[in-house]
Design brief:
The complex is a heterodimer of chains A (292) and B (323). By secondary structure, chain A is mainly alpha-helical. Chain A is built from eleven helices and no strands. With 323 residues, chain B is of the alpha/beta class. Classes of the chains: A mainly alpha (292), B alpha/beta (323).
Chain lengths: 292, 323
Amino acid sequence: MSDTSLPKPRSEMGETMHHLLRDPLGLVGLVIVTLIVGSALLAPWIAPYDPIAMNIPDRLQGPSAAHLLGTDQIGRDTFSRVIWGGRVALQVALPTIGGAVAIGLILGMAAGYGPKWLDTLIVLFFDTLRSFPTVMFALAVVALVGPSLNTVILVIMATSIPTYGRVVRTLTQSLKEAEFITAERALGASTLRIMGVHLLPNVLGPLAVLAAMDIPTVVGLEAGLSFLGMGVRPPTPSWGSLLNDGYSLIRNTPWLIIAGGIPLILTTIGFTFLGEALRDVVDPKLRGKGGK
Amino acid sequence: MTVLDIQGLSVSYGTPRGELRALRDVSLSVPERKIVGIVGESGCGKSTLISAIIRLMAPNARVRSGTVRFNGQDLLALPEARMRGLRGTEISMVFQDPMQTHNPVLTVGRQMIDIQYRDKRSKADKLKRAAEMLALVGIPDARARLNQYPFEFSGGMRQRIAIAMALMARPSLLIADEPTTALDATLEVQIIKRLRELQDEIGCSILFISHHLGVIAELCDEVVVMYAGEVVEAGSVRDVFHHPAHPYTRALLECDPGHIKEKTRNLPTIPGNIPDLVSLPGGCIFADRCPQRHDACTEHPVMSEASAGHRAACHLIKAGAPA
């Protein structure tokens, strides 16, 4: 018997994946998300046509072997545009959510753990940001500085900060009073250590769930703004501009609407499933209760 | 050698009703390699005393006077960074509720590695040390259990883990705040036994807070009886338990179910309540509830010797009444 061999502790990441894969909902979510992210990453190689190359003779075709999802009014391949559109969607969603989560996390923890005056100040900041309706705010900013992807990213990020910040603040406040935090302090942990080592892992789980479920919202917002002509500029493909093109041509061909709508629906389903599954998985207490 | 020496400590809380004088002129000392018990009912200032020693006081608490000397240095005058350096290394603490004292989302191993952050050693060494400590407090199969989360342990196990974490750095003083109150009687006995063994092995002193007289009698060398924020009696366990000099101590002992010989439906209680600490009555604080109250009690008694090393704050001692 070799009692010196230590059972290798599985990394937190490995543990999460292990449990995620055993949850059918999580598996479906993961497959869809991988599909969307994968096709967006590999767009230059898997898209059969240049998404902005016009081909007037082949305009407004239905699905065929040459054009899987048909073509639009100037003969661009819809399938290629859907794939490239995913790229735009993620280009907006990931930095937006990432930035909002990071800023919300820092501000929320500072507000929850810090002195009262800081809390008041940060909450005031959150409330101010939150009072802007995202779409109206975006439209106003776009009207001022002109439509661009970066403007959309910044505006959505700014208006999502309070969502994350408030959750983090509330969690931090309730955890701050927990006895294990007092215990850690009594064993000599500094404020930064308590925040980084003890509060962060407790907050990160719920936050990851929230972020995963928020991705479709942001993708939808980008599509909405692009649909209104306030997001990405033509000819850059976006699911929103596909819908916009299709909307005016719906009597001629329904394919554009369908092609723009399905990825939006899939994104929503995929990330929501993943978020749901993550919620059960990140809490060690709920692990192992799902599919044995 | 005295490890912890508290002299004339007074702590108040600012409340909307006025100043709540939670601790008044508290003096006690913990000698090296000894276990000192603090006993008293809820609200007697036990928790305030601990928070003042480790300097983790509520924001509205204020030390009005007194010193807390730990191995010669005044803790109350120490800069915060130095104080933090002492916590967990020289002074450690075990809390009341083992179900609440661990981070629920980190494995026990990670938490035990993390509290060794001050050591410049490899992670494997730290893990090994954590396993040794777990084995020392009596957790079987310690190495494998390091990968488990707190919720996978029972209450008694968790309290042992808390003790292992507190003793990791071999501190010279362990403060145990009612560590067995949340456990059942059999576990209580086990933890007490283990604490005694560990104290012997590590050679630390223990300040043991409890309201359970039986546990104090079992575990401690000396005992300090507190009432409404004051020390009313202090001495060796033998003296205080067999010859209580203060009427409050006597009343406490009479209320201990372990002492009651006859079958009864009504457990004895001490009539009355703890005085209001915002507007304190003059004179002896126990006078209102004291069966032996007399004229002298309108004056505040001072601690006086009942016998060698056994002191109590009661006028009856000076009057020469039989203790």
